[in-house]
Write a structure and sequence with these properties.
- This protein has 353 residues and is α+β, with helices and mostly antiparallel strands.
- It folds into two domains: 155 residues; 148 residues, no CATH class.
- Helices cover 31% and strands 26% of the residues.
- Strands 1-2-3-7-6-5-4 form a seven-stranded antiparallel sheet. The chain has a seven-stranded antiparallel sheet with strand order 8-9-10-11-13-12-14.
Length: 353
Amino acid sequence: MQKKSGLRGVHAGWYAGVAVLVVGLVAAVLYGSGAYDSWRDGRSLDEACDGTLAQGGLASALGSSDLRAEQGDGGALAECTVKTSPGTGRAVQITLRWSTTAAPAGTLARYDSGYDGVRAQAAPLGNGWPGVVRHDGTWQIMVALDCLNQKDKALVAYGDLYGAADGTALTGLGRVTTETARAAAGKYGCRARAGKPLTQVSTARLGTPGTAKPAGRAQGSCVALRDTSVTRSGTPEIMEYPADPDAPQTTCYLVTGAKKPGYGLYAYYGAAAKDFESTGYGGPDHDSVLATAPCPRSTHEAVFALYRLHDRDTDSYPVPHYSASFARLALKAFAEHEAEQRGCGAVRIMSRP
């Protein structure tokens, strides 16, 4: 009996040793073949941005399907960065926040440059999304989903694309940002009205050759200035984006005969209006005029602004003499048209804070 018991112990030890060896061999094979890395990277994507990261457009945005995600530092509602694996210098960063909290510093800087040529421009995202596309060295897509069940609160999503980008990459970024915003709104209990799936996001930007046209041909974001005396202000042409009543920002430029933007007009709504206001309305040290209006989609008033623009290339003002009376006239026309399109109340020209 004692001999059999000893044999059983030997067999058990042998089986245990074989099991350990097999596990080790399997692990080595998985690690050597890259299967473990693939599993780890896939899991990092599934867990990214508190599990809300939409992965459908990532390959298009980054030009690769070999991706991994890293979590942010915890300063936002959720934040994550997706990189190609191995790294190629391209990355997508998604940041989520509530409109009741402060915007990221880098984003606020975009609201503080309304006087600086065409830097503060934002193109409407389209397809029913309350979002815009911005470019200032890198591309950013911002979406603000108003919570229908939570007064004066919106879920704000930012998608930043680092590295080389074209229309395909920007469309991928748009899909990731919008669908992540949709998923996050559902996860955090924000009942929101989202847009349709994006199929194309344009890289077109105002200020490039061929974007100026006579003011009389305005039909988009500058249409309110079509019948005003813009020619007598030294700005007979305009640069505009398509009109979009869902976008949280509207941009219009009045352009000189030399094709230089002379005045910039902006409208900000909801979360964008709050962020613009938090910068001190773009700063006090510039020729400008402001207006506000109450709007039905937010308890925060919409803000409208006109700036005389500075040209970096020549370090001068394309419109050499600022006309306060024209500025008020132009902003009033722009703001009243915007307010009418969005069902807002009366426009009030305000004093500089």
